[in-house]
Write a structure and sequence with these properties.
The complex is a heterodimer of chains A (307) and B (538).
Chain A (H helix, E strand, L loop, with lengths): L2 E12 L2 E12 L3 E5 L6 H8 L7 E6 L8 H5 L2 E4 L11 H11 L5 H10 L13 H13 L5 E5 L7 H16 L3 E5 L3 H7 L2 E6 L2 E7 H6 L2 E7 L13 E7 L2 E7 L3 H8 L8 E3 L3 H9 L5 H8 L3
Parallel strand pairs in A: 3-7, 3-8, 5-6, 6-7
Antiparallel strand pairs in A: 1-2, 1-4, 8-9, 10-12, 10-13, 11-12
Helix pairs in contact in A: 3-5, 4-5
Chain B lengths: L1 H6 L7 H38 L2 H12 L1 H7 L10 H28 L1 H5 L2 H6 L7 H28 L4 H28 L3 H25 L30 H19 L24 H29 L1 H6 L4 H6 L5 H33 L2 H6 L5 H35 L3 H11 L2 H17 L7 H14 L7 H4 L17 H24 L6
Helix pairs in contact in B: 2-5, 2-8, 4-10, 5-8, 5-9, 5-10, 8-9, 9-10, 9-11, 12-15, 12-17, 15-17, 15-19, 15-20, 17-18, 17-19, 17-22, 19-22
Classes of the chains: A alpha/beta (307), B mainly alpha (538).
Chain lengths: 307, 538
Amino acid sequence: MADAIVMQNVVKRFGKTTALDGTDLNVLIGEVHGFLGPNGAGKSTAIRVLLGLLRHDSGEVRVLDGDPWNDTVTLHRRLAYVPGDVQLWPNLTGGEIIDVLGRLRGGFDAARKSELCERFALDPHKKSRTYSKGNRQKVALISALVSNVELFLFDEPTSGLDPLMEAEFQEVVRELTAKGRTVLLSSHILAQVESLADRISIIRDGKTVEAGSLDDLRHMSRTSITVPTEQPLDRLATLPGVHGLTSHNGHSQFDVDRISLDSVIRELSTFGVLSLEAKPPTLEQLLLRHYSDQISAETRQVVLGDS
Amino acid sequence: MTTRAQTRDHKLIGLATVVRLALRRDRLSLTSWVIGFGLFTLYVVVAIPAAYGDEADMRATADLFAVPMSRVLIGPAYGFENPSFEQFVTNGYGLYFLLLAALMSILTMIRHTRAEEQTERAELLRSNAVGRHATLTAALIMTGVANVLSTAAVVAVLLFVGEYSIEGSLLFGAGIAATGLSFAGIAAVTAQLSEFSRGASGLAGIVLGAAFVIRAGGDLAAVGGSTLSWFSPLAWAQQTAPFVLNRWWPLALPLILAMVTCAMGFALSAVRDFGASHFQARLGPGHAPSRWGHPWGWAWRQQRSLTIAWAGSLIVGSLAFGGFTQALLEAELPEVFRQLFTSVDLLTGYLAYMVTFMAFFVSSFAVMAVQGLRSEESTTRLEAILALPVSRSRWFLAQLGVTTLVTAVMLLVIGWSIGVGAALVTRDWSLVLDLGWAQLSYLPAVGVVLAVAALLFGTLPRLVPATWALVALSVFLGSFGTLLDLPQFVLNLSPFTHLAEMPIEKFNAWAAMVLSGISLAGVGIGVLGLRRRDVSGG
C-alpha cells in the first residue's frame, strides 16, 4: 500500500455541468503533493469527492486503501481537512470550535492546541464572528493539526494568512512529513508549492493535464536561453523547438523545448557564443502554459516569452 | 431631520454625498418596497371585494374578524359591526401594513448604519470629509424617503383604484408612515447598542415582537383595544380607526417616539468610538465543555438559542392567553365564536382551542430547527462536521432527536403555562396537569411536520421551506375549517385534525400511533436520502 490517494478517470457532474471530467490523481504515502489549477478547475470538487461528501459518477477513487463514499467514518478517523473558505459558528469562540471538532474526531492533544495557538498567534477566547478571514483560517488549520492522523487534505489552507504565518505553516508541514504524514496541498501560492511539494498534479476543466515531480515537469517543458553572439542569430528561428526568438544589439533571447536542446546548442556554437545563460522554467511559467488560453496574449508574452 | 441638518452642519459635512450613495445602493430594494406596498394594497383593495361579491356577503363573515382571537391577529377591529369595504379592508388588514413598514424601516436603518460600520465600508467614507453624524442622518433620510414613497403608493391605490374617500385614505397612509418612522428611530438606537448588524436588527426585532404581543393582549380584551394596547407603538396607527372614527391625534404618539429615539440614537453615537458599541462583544471561554464533543451534545448546543427564544415567548404567550380565560367567560360572545370553540362548555372549548393554536407554534419551531440544518449545509459548516468521523445518519438523527425532545418538553411546559394562567383567574388548579397532557398529546402531529421537513432535507433540500405550506394549511384548517364547512377529506390534510381534541375529548391512542408511525417513516426516508445525496455548500 504505497498510495495514499488514487483517483482514476473520475467524473462528477452537477446537472449539466461536468465538474470533474476524467480526473487522475496519485498521492504517495509520506509525500507532499501539490494540487494546482485555475479557479473553477475542480480542485475543491475533487477534494470533496475524496472526503465522501460528493459521490462521483464514474471512475475509481481510493483513499488510504478505502472507499471514501462507503468507508467514510473509518477513513475520517485517519484524515483531517482544511477548507479554503472557512465558515465558523459565529457565537462560539475559536477555542471552543477547536475543542468541539477535536472531540468529534475522537480526541485531540490539548497541549498541542495551546502550542499551535501560540505559534499561529490565535486568541482562542474571541467569538468567531469577530475573527478576520485569516483568523478563521487559523482556527480550521489548528483544528486539523491537533489531531494525530495520517493524511491531511488542505484546500488552499493559507488564504488570508500573512507572510509570517505562511512561513509558520510551511514549517508545520515539514514537521508533518518528517513524521511520515501525507499531505495533499491545493494552493495558488506557487512559492509554497515549490518549496513544499515533492510532486504536483495540474488540473484544468476537470482533467489532469500534468503530473509528476517538479523536475519531471520542467524536463518536459522549455528552457529560456539568453545569449550574446558574434553573428546575428536570425537563422535559428527556423529550427524545430525554438520559440519566441528576439534579438537586440547582438543579444538574443529564446525558449527551447527540452527535447531539441542538444541540437539547438550544437547549432548555436557556430554563431560564436560570447556568454550563455540558461534558466529552467519557473512553476509559474509551467502553470501559465497550462492555463494559457484563459489569459491575455499580452500576459503570455510577458511571462512566457511566446510570440 | 432638516432642522438637525441646519443646526449641526459641522457634524454633517458630506451628508449629501452619503445620501446619494445610499440612494444609489438602495435603488433596487427601495423600488421593490414601494412596488411591494402598492401591490399589497392592490391585492386587498381588489381581491377582497372580488372574493366576497358584495358588501352584504362580506358583512356576514365580518363578525368572525371581531371575535377576541381574531383581534389578536388583526387589531382593535374598529367598524366591524356593519362595515363597508373601506372600513373592512383598512381596519382588518392595516396591522400588516404597519408590520411591513416597521420591518422596512428596521432593515433599511441597520443596513445603512451598523452593517456598514461592521464591514468597515463606512470607515472608507468616514476617512473622507464626512461628518460624525452624516451616516446616521443619511440612514434616517433614506428610511424616511422609503416610508413616504411606500405610503404614497398605498394612498394612491386606495384613492384611484379603490375610490376610497379621501380623509380615511390619507389617515391610513399617515399611520403607516408614522409607524415606520417610529421604528426607524428605534433602529437608530439599537444600531448603537450592538457591534453586529444581526444583533442590532435582532434587538429592534425584539421591540417589534414585544409591540405585537402587547397590542395583541390589549386588543384581545375588548373591541377598540384596552389600556394595554396604548403601550404598543404598533397600536397607535390602528387607534386612528380610518374610515370609522377618522381621528388624527393618536399619530402624535409615533411621531414623538420617533423624535425621542432619534435624539437618543444621535446621543449614543456621539459618545462611542467608531466600530464600537454599547454592548461590547465579550471574550468567551477558550475551551468547550466535553459534552459538546458528541453529536447529541453538539445538536443541543446548536439549537439552544432558538429553543430559549421560542420557549420563552411561547410561555409568556401561554400564561397571557390562559389568564384571559375569565374575561372571555364574562364577555358576550357572538354565535360564530361559540361555533369556533365547538364545546358545550365554553371554558374547556376555549382552552382546547388555545392548546391547538400553541401546537401550531411548536410545529413552526420544528420547521425552523430543520431550516437551521439547511443553513448549516449552505454555509459549508456542515462539511466541517461531516469531514470528521461522524456519519451523516448519526449527525442527522442526533439533530432530529434533540428537536423532538425539545418540542416534547416545550409542549408540556406550554400546556402547564396555559393551565397556570387559567388557574390564576379561575382558581381551578386541576387545569394545570390536564392542559399539560392535552398539549403534549399534539406531539405526534408536530412530529409529522418535523418529519416532512426532515424528509425534504434528506431528499430535496432546497424544498425544506415548502414545509411552511403544511404549517399554514394546518393553521388555516384548524382555525376556519369547520366554520367554512369544508369536507372531511380536506380537513384530513392537516395532521392536527386526526388527534383527539383534548381536553374536550379523550386521548386517541390509535391516531397518535398512526401519526407517530408516519413520522418515523418520513424521518427514515430523510435519513436514507441524506446518505445518498451530495453534501455541499454550493
